Amino acid sequence: MSTASVILLGCLGVIVFDALAALLSRTTSLRYVWFAPGSFVIYAVTGYFAADASGSVVVGAAAGAVAATVDATLGSIIGKGLQGEFEPVAPRLEAAGAAFAITVGALAGVAAGYLAAG
């Protein structure tokens, strides 16, 4: 599988996960934030397979960061649109949360990329 395909699947995976998490959050009254570890796993898996496909840990880090960026933007919009259990957050804190998610995505991609590199 090509690196681009891996990244695309990771992005689609995180969008689907966000939609399911929002629906579960709404129906069970669990806070949406409790589903964040699932997103982190998707970042790592995306980074692992991208690094494996490309042979580059840097590509793994970038792939994890791309999946996290999609999560922090489209995933957030989808989650809010499906009315998941969100805490009210000031816009600057929302931006900080997005930056944190992207950083975690890159770090997860690096860690998983090293595993893929053997």
Automatic annotation (TrEMBL):
Would I find Transmembrane helix among this entry's keywords?
yes
UniProt keywords (A-Z) are: Membrane, Transmembrane, Transmembrane helix
Q: Which residues cross the membrane?
A: 31-50, 57-78, 98-117
Q: What is this protein called?
A: Uncharacterized protein
Organism of derivation: Solirubrobacter pauli
